Amino acid sequence: MFKIWAKVLKNDKIKKQYVLEKSGVMDYSLFFEYVREICENLDIPTPVIIKTHIFNYAKYNVLRFKKDDFVENIDFDKLVLENAFI
């Protein structure tokens, strides 16, 4: 089982949060689907995901999406994904 804690931040304050819980081991080939599901539950646009994002999450257990990572306009400063260890 793994968990991803997602936080929507504006002015360094959490405006929304969501924890994605899945059974089994994280499959990085499905990382976009995980992020899409998180964004759908937070009711925000899905960011553009590149290979570097996935590598950084795998290596550092945290990923920060800024305004430049979104195609659509957003009303927050960043989306932060953290590996929520059990």
Account of the 3D structure:
The protein is built from 2 helices and 4 strands; from the N terminus they run ββααββ. The protein has a 4-stranded antiparallel β-sheet. It is globular. Helix content is 26%, strand content 35%. It has one domain.
Task: Pick out its properties.
single chain, 86 residues, alpha+beta, four-stranded antiparallel beta sheet, 2 helices, 4 strands, globular
Helicity level: 25-40%
Structural class category: alpha+beta
What is the C-alpha radius of gyration, as a whole number of Å? 12 Å
Strand order of the largest sheet: 2-1-4-3
**Shape descriptor:** globular
- Indicate the mean pLDDT: 94
Topology:
Elements: E1 2-10, E2 13-22, H1 31-42, H2 51-60, E3 62-66, E4 78-83
Antiparallel strand pairs: 1-2, 1-4, 3-4
Task: Describe, in short, the structure shown.
This protein has helices at 31-42, 51-60; strands at residues 2-10, 13-22, 62-66, 78-83. It is α+β, with helices and mostly antiparallel strands.
